[in-house]
Amino acid sequence: MSIENLFSLKNKVAVVTGAAGLIGKHHCHALSEVGANIIVCDIDKNKCEQLAGELNTKSFGIQTDITKPGSVINLKEKILSEFGKIDILVNNAAINDMFENPSMAAELSMFENYPLDMWKKSIDVNITGTFLCSQILGSEMAKAGKGSIINIASTYGIVAPDQSIYKQRDGSQSFYKSAAYPVTKGAVISFTKFLAAYWGKKGVRVNALSPGGVENNQDEYFIENYSAKTILGRMAKPTDYKGAIIFLASDASEYMTGANLIVDGGWTAW
Q: Is 181 part of the annotated catalytic residue set?
């Protein structure tokens, strides 16, 4: 098979959850650029439909709450009605800590004070959502005897957060990275290995992608702190993961399963 064909996703059907997010939309564009038809999924209906309209292949925006089985079943039925198959699932949807009152962020993000409801919400979206989409949509791949599931994890699922990068220039701590995100992303990596082993004989490959931090109008001092911890000396651009997504979704990675592809500018290498 030629290199071009190895990376081609022509006529494949790819589902991307959390598609309206910072890197989710770039996952959609990347997969579409190599021929895949995209099912754009997010909680925001308008953003889903708008993004689907920007893609060059046959694509649809479908509002989905990945924490609710009925919503994911509805998603599956709509996909099968339109395309009759599911080839690729990118479990990208996740939440990160957002505090309604920024002045309380430092106090509430401390482990000693971290709210239980925020912990539970992270587990519900980041772990249970990934579980439900894999169970309901991935089962169709297992029935067909082929498919690729890509679970978006994080460097924080591999190493602990360095709380010092969240300090201000004056040395004050404006925010602490909570336990919720690292714990849930670590679980995603473990779940990836479980599912790869479970569905290996069914022809379904399951891999994780662990991205590093993406620059997105953060405080200049934070960007400096983060960049100094990477070998390449910068945060990621939102487009830096397009190649990795295509690789994991396509036949270019056909002998790869149960793996965690780390694309982090060298953050975890030292």
A: yes
